[in-house]
Design goal:
single chain; 436 residues; alpha/beta; D-Maltodextrin-Binding Protein, domain 2; 2 domains; 4-stranded mixed beta sheet; 13 strands; 13% strand; globular
Amino acid sequence: MKKLLYVMAAILSAGLMAACSNPSPAGAGSEAQSTKVETGGEVKKITIWRPQNTQEIEEWWTTMLDSFNKEYEGKYQAVQETFPKSGSDSYSEKINTAVIANNLPDLMLVDGPNVSSYAQNEILVPLDEFVTEEDKKDMLESCLKQGTVDGKLYAVALWESSVGIYYNKDMLEAEGIEVPQTQDKAWTWDELYQTAKQLKKENRFGITLNTNQSQITYYYSPLLEQLGSCLTNPEGTKTDGYINSKESVEVASFIKRFYEDGIANIEPTSTEFADGGSALWLATSYQISMLQNQYPDLNWGVTYYPVSNDRKEATPTGSWTVGMTKSAGDKEAAYALLNYMTDKEANLSGSPASGYLPARHSSTEALTQYREEPYRIFMEQLENNGAPRPRTAVWTTLNSAYNSAVSDIILGSEPQKKLDEAAKAVDEEYEMNFAE
């Protein structure tokens, strides 16, 4: 019962954070009665739930499901049900209700860091009996890591994401600043700070940082890995000594310096960089399509996510996955749809349509644009040093606690004190709900 109550709270919180961090939905999408696989009839119905998304992603889902139903006509019928990312009828609310009623769909979309929590709470079931070793080898290592819990694969990535430094070519050229073009020349964090400081002018900031409270863990936890630490122990059962380690204090204090010294704007607009309000922008790969489509005259480029002073590499990764729930009536039928939505062919159409990055080596090789600028940097990072967020049953609590602690530190709170409080909150949550 304790685990169930925690899962309810986690799902609700995760839904709120997803609403803050993802693009606005394009509309209601397709709706259908929530029916599990019908094993008694000739045609087996497979239900998949997901949050609503942009118009481009909605159109991709409609096309893919129509194609699946045509290919498997007379055998399987895929039915999707979509929900808003926030509000009283949100995706998280729907999952919450379904968990309590034991009436989950066959398949559901799960944000990468939530896979561990859903798996450990037996909402998702392992996929290893269906996924071949050859198929696993085709998945990017970062995707395989985020979908694996205790050695078992519970979810397969739809696509991927990464973070890099966008830069205004004209502004950097005016300052005589050369931008790293290969990973071994990537700026260190100290070099990024000095570069941003040089670029700071009376009418612009040196850099736009993302310190939105729902995104801090995603953007900055890889710094801990670069320093040889992490937010949790390897088992994901303890944060004391990790989230509040000297390395964690160092990372939070370093981020704070950008704001203290006036190099970054504490309240940036979403288009600060694109509008010329900053020379650099630490941002996700998703922003490429926005800049290309909405700012065609902006002269910009992308370079690597920074490395530690001793050149250790680790970069943010993670996005939506598809998992099979414990309520799936016919697992073979459910996996047929899961595989159809996540295989190479799905990646070939889904990545360009969504604005995200491919999740497979084979699709990356086939889509030549991902080997060219500006995507090349992000794909190189994913293939060589992607660092998924911590895998723990109390991910939502950890994410919230760390985000809040770093936000408070940026605003002036004492770093060690706030991170100690975060460790206490997360570990108490784990002990209360999951300790044997």
